[in-house]
Amino acid sequence: MSDKEQIKSVVQLYIDSMDESSADKVKEAFHPNASVVGYLHGDFMEMSVDDFAGFVSSQQPSPSTVGENVVFEIFVCEVEGTTALVKLRDKYLGITFFDTLSFIKQEGEWKIYNKLFNVESE
User: Fold this and answer.
1) Which residues sit opposite 83 in a β-bridge?
2) How far apart are CA 115 and CA 101, in angstroms?
3) What are the start-end ranges of the E strands in the chain?
4) Class in CATH terms, 3-121
5) Residue 69 DSSP label
6) CB atoms near residue 43 (< 10 Å)
7) pTM for this entry
8) What is the mean pLDDT of each run of 10 residues along the chain (122 residues)?
9) How far is CA 68 from CA 11, 21, 63, 89, in A?
10) Is the separation of the CB atoms in 108 and 5 below 8 Å?
């Protein structure tokens, strides 16, 4: 599997984590030291992976349970050695986000190291 295919697989895992409200899948997709940063409802948010995993798992019932799966589209997937960048738009919990995800390859595995998000519409 190419690096781009592996990265897209991690993006799918990230989307699945939100669909299923799965903290475990968040922690599988993200590097343990990753951060999630952006503005939501006008408030600056800065979360650790554990914080984000807790937020995702608190969304009950899960979006997939109620037929509101996360819809997403990847716009950019660039790989430079052991780093990569993915830009995507996703609709989650009725909010449209534009995410910029940075990736790091460690011990042969790609992980999200940083997620910057921008709310496009609420």
Assistant:
1) 80, 104
2) 5
3) 30-40, 43-48, 71-80, 83-92, 95-106, 109-121
4) alpha beta
5) P
6) 7
7) 0.95
8) 96 97 98 96 95 96 93 96 97 95 97 97 81
9) 18, 12, 5, 16
10) no
